[in-house]
Input
Amino acid sequence: MNPEISRLSNGLTIISDPMPGLESAAIGVWVNTGARNETPSQMGVSHMLEHMAFKGTATRSARAISEEIEAVGGVLNAYTSREQTAFHARILKADVPLALALLGDILVNPAFAEEEIARERQVVLQEIGQARDTPDDIIFDHLQAAIYPDQPMGWPILGEEKTVSSFSREMLRAYMASNYRAGGVTLVASGAVMHDQLVALAERAFADFAPGTASAPLPALYSGGDARFVEDLEQAHIAFAFPGLSNSDPDYYVGQLYTAALGGGMSSRLFQEAREKRGLCYSIYAFTSGFQDNGFLSVYVGTGEAEAAEIAAVVAGEMEAMAGNLSEAELARARAQLKASLLMGLERPAGRMEQIAGQLFALGRVQPPSEIIAQLDAIDLGAVKRYAGRVVETGKSAIAAIGPIARLENHERFARRFGGGDMPQAAE
Amino acid sequence: MNPEISRLSNGLTIISDPMPGLESAAIGVWVNTGARNETPSQMGVSHMLEHMAFKGTATRSARAISEEIEAVGGVLNAYTSREQTAFHARILKADVPLALALLGDILVNPAFAEEEIARERQVVLQEIGQARDTPDDIIFDHLQAAIYPDQPMGWPILGEEKTVSSFSREMLRAYMASNYRAGGVTLVASGAVMHDQLVALAERAFADFAPGTASAPLPALYSGGDARFVEDLEQAHIAFAFPGLSNSDPDYYVGQLYTAALGGGMSSRLFQEAREKRGLCYSIYAFTSGFQDNGFLSVYVGTGEAEAAEIAAVVAGEMEAMAGNLSEAELARARAQLKASLLMGLERPAGRMEQIAGQLFALGRVQPPSEIIAQLDAIDLGAVKRYAGRVVETGKSAIAAIGPIARLENHERFARRFGGGDMPQAAE
Output
C-alpha cells in the first residue's frame, strides 16, 4: 500500500491508494458529521441530508444523477453513522472522472427542492418502519440509547417520526452550512486511480465546498442501563454492552484481540459455549463500536424464550473467566484472524477505501498494514488478560432486549455476576 | 480468466482459477443436492447435513475443525439452496492445503455423533425462529411456497419444527449416501492457487468420496398463487412473482437485462416510480431466481399500511408498460450495469468462485467473461421488449405478503391488471 495525500486550499483532504492491475475503483467522500452532531429537534437530519444529496442539484435532477452513474454501470451509495456521513461510488477505471463530478455536484450544489424534501420524508419514514421490523437491527438502536441516555450519541441515526416530519429546506441548509465544512471532509480512492488525476478532478469538483471546520460534538458519556421491549416474536433478541475503547486508543488492538477471542468466530468462547456446547442459539457474536472519544463492546444473541433464562449467565461466565484463563492458543487464533482479515481486505478496493477513511478519522493518518501487523504481534497474553479484567470490573454494563424476554434476568442480577464474587457465576 | 478443469476417478470435478498477484484464495465445494431433493419427511435435511459437516469427523471434533481453520485466520462457512449445498473457505495462500484437507474430511468422514445431532437440532430450530423474525427474509419462503405448492421446490430450506426434530443419525446417513455422490460434486478454487497442487490435494482429500450420481429431482412446476399473513408489523412486506427462466435458458441474459431495467438500480422503473416519484417505500427491487429446469422473476417491496393500497397497481403498471415503451437508453444502462458488475466481480476471489460454480451447474462448462459480454452486446431492444411481453402474458402471477396488508388488493384483481386491457392500469 502506497497512499498519497494532498489537501485542497479549502482544507479538503484527498487520499489516493492505487492498486496495480485493477480495472475498477472505489471512491468515497467522508463528511465528519452524523447523529451525534444533532440537537434534539435535528434528530435524523444527518441521515436526511444523506438522502437529499441524491435528490437533485442546481443542474441535475434526481433522475439524472441515478441515470448518469448507472449508464456506465457504476453504483453510487451512501450511509450515515454516529460520527460521519459517507458517499461512495464503485466504477470502472474510465469512469473515475464522472464519479468525482457527481460526488462533487451532489455535495456542493444540492437543490433541496420542496417537493423532493416532502417525498423523501415519506421514504425515510418507510426506512424507519423497515428497521423496526428487523429485530436484530433495531436492537442496536435500543442498546445505543441504553448506553448513552439523554445525549446525541444515544439517538437513532434515522431520527424519529416527529423530527423527520418536521425537516424543512431551511433546516437542512442551516445544518449543512454548519456541518459540511471542507476541513472535516476526506476523499479516498482505491483501485485504478492516479493521484495527480484525482487531485485535479477533486479541485474542480470540490472547489466550492465551504472551507473551515464544524464545531466538535459534545463528549459522549458511557452511562449504561437497560432497555426491554416485550414483543410477540419467535426469538429473544438480546444485546449486552460494556465500556470499550475509542478508535484512537493505544490499546485498540488489544480490544480487538479480546473481542475476537470472546465472540469473533466459530472457535470463540461464546460460540463454543452457547451454541456448540449448549445449543442455545444460532447467532451469537461479539463486536466493538468505537468513536472518537468513547466506545463500547457488545455481545448479541438471538435465542428462544426458555433459553433466555440461561443465556445471561453463559455470557457473564465466559467474560468473567477470560481474565483468568485466556490461553496462548486462543490469543494466537485471534491474532491470525485479525491479520488474515486485514490482508484479505487489502485485495478489495472498497475494503481498502473504508480502512483508510477510518484510520484518517481516528488517527489523523494512514496506518501501513505492516504497522498494524507489528502492533498485533507485540501484544502479549498478559495485556489481553488485563484488558479482559478491565472490561468487567467497571460495573457499567447495559442490556437491550426485544421479544419473549420475561425469563431474561434483570439488569441488577446480571451486573452482580461480575467482580463481586458473591453471586453464583455458573448457569442455573 | 484461465480456468483449468480436471476430474478425479470417482467423478468429482475440480476447477482452478488462478489470479496472479493475489495472496489469498477462495475454495468451495458444491454438492448438487438441496431442498428440492427432499421428500416430505426429509424437509430440511440438506440444510441439517450442511450444519452437521461442522460437528465432527472420524478424527476431528467440532471444536478442532473450527480451531484449525481459525488458527490460520481462515474462515470456513457453508450454505444450502434449493438445488445445492456449498462448503467454502477463505484462506491465505499458504493455507490452501489445510483448507482442502478440512473440506475433504468434513464431507467424507462426518461422525454424526448422536449428542451432536441432538444439539444441532436445537440450533436449527433457533435459526428457523430467527428467519421468522425477519419479514424481508421469510417473505421469500412464503413466495416460494405460493409459486410451487405441494412440491419440494416450494418447501423451506431450513425445514419445519416437526421434520427437524425428527432427524436421526440413520436418516442423515441415508440421505447423504443417496445424494452426496462425486459425480454431482464440484470443487472450485479462485485466487492464489495452482492447478496441479489443487488436484493433488483434492485427490488425497476426496479419494473416498462416494462415486456415482444422485437421482435427479422431480421437475418443478411453476403454479402461482397467493399467500398472505396479517401480522402486527410496521410495514407491509410484499413479494410479487412471475414465471421466469431456468439458469440454462438461451434467453438468460435477456431476462437479466429486463430485470435490471425493471428494478435493478436507482434509475430503474420501479425505484423511480414507487420511491422517487411517489415516496411509497424505502426498498423496492426486482430479481430473478433460476433453477435447472425452471425459474421466476420477483419484485419485493416494503411499504406502509396505507401505501399498500397503491403499490400493486404501480408494479403492474410498470411491468405492463415495458413491452411497449422500454427505451434504448434504459437497455444501455441495464447492459452497462451487468457488464460492470461482471468485471468488478472478476476482481474478487469469492466472486469468481461463485460465478464459476454457478456456470458449471447451469451449463456444464465455464463461460469466459468475453462470451457473456458478447451475449449482452448482441441482445437488442426488440428482444427485451418481447420478453417483457412474455413475462406478463402468462397470467400466472404469485403474491406473498406479511404485515398490515388489509388494503393490498386481492390476487384476482392484481392478475386482471395484465394483458386483458379491460381493467384500469393506472394507480387509483
Summary: The first strand of chain B starts at residue 4 and ends at 7. Chain B has a mean pLDDT of 96. Chain B touches chain A through 78 residues (CB under 8 Å). Chain B is about 45% helix and 20% strand.
